[in-house]
Amino acid sequence: MIVIFGIKENLNPIKAQLSDVIHGCMKTVLKMPEDKRAHRFIPMEKEDFYYPGGRSDAYTVIEINMMSGRTIETQKRLIKSLFKEIEFQLSISPVDIEIVIKEQAPHQWGFRGMTGDEVRDLTYKVNL
């Protein structure tokens, strides 16, 4: 699951395109299938969204929650791909993007009535 935060006046107009960019990177780097898009957008009032100096109102935070198992190299490749593609396709500077990957053990995920360590029919690999 991916959660995206930003100032609503900047985030709302680009939500669909940003979702496409993020999912494109997930498919390319993590080999996620087309139908595994789980994005949650949190458009915020400017007065509720504090961010570091040197950033513009385009500042966007992307939190990627995933089961543990991807290598450091794979995770770094995903982050760098997101920076590159967001800048190329949406003209948002990497200085205005913050990405955090939060890993949880498979047993800490619950979906389709089971935990992640019990599922046997994933159409993608977690360990890559």
Automatic annotation (TrEMBL):
Pfam family, one: Tautomerase_2
Gene3D superfamilies: Macrophage Migration Inhibitory Factor
InterPro entries: Tauto_MSAD, Tautomerase/MIF_sf
Regions that span the bilayer: none
Top-rank lineage group of the source organism: Bacteria
Protein name, per record: Tautomerase family protein
Lineage: Bacteria, Pseudomonadati, Pseudomonadota, Gammaproteobacteria, Alteromonadales
